[in-house]
């Protein structure tokens, strides 16, 4: 399956809040999906590692919605 940004738009539009599941097609190349998401949102980064939050995370660079302990930061 060849992906386009329009396909990614459709996938993201189907995501909803809560505990819903999305089943991706079996012939989907996950690296292609990853590359399209990187093109859209930038390179992934580690926000928490071994229970410690990256000190560079702030409102301008992707503030966490909760702390590693599960409480508000």
Report on this structure.
The chain is mainly alpha-helical. It is 30% helix and 5% strand. It has helices at residues 5-14, 30-41, and strands spanning 48-49, 52-53. The chain has a two-stranded antiparallel sheet with strand order 1-2. It starts with a helix and ends in a 20-residue tail after the last strand. The mean pLDDT is 76.
Concise account of the structure shown:
The chain is mainly alpha-helical and 73 residues long. The protein is built from two helices and two strands.
Strand content: 5-15%
Provide the structure class. Answer: mainly alpha
Order of helices and strands: HHEE
Termini gap:
40 Å
- Provide the residue-averaged pLDDT: 76
Q: Report the helical percentage.
A: 25-40%
Looking at the structure, what is the overall shape?
A: extended
Keywords summarizing the entry:
two-stranded antiparallel ribbon; mainly alpha; extended; 73 residues; 2 strands; 2 helices
Helix and strand topology:
Blueprint (H helix, E strand, L loop, with lengths): L4 H10 L15 H12 L6 E2 L2 E2 L20
Antiparallel strand pairs: 1-2
């Amino acid at each position: 399956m060849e992906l386009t940004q329009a396909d990614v738009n459709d996938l993201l539009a189907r995501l909803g809040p809560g505990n819903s599941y999305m089943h991706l097609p079996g012939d989907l190349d996950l690296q292609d999906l990853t590359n399209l998401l990187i093109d859209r949102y930038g390179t992934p980064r580690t926000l928490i590692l071994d229970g410690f939050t990256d000190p560079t995370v702030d409102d301008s660079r992707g503030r966490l919605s909760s702390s590693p302990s599960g409480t508000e930061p």
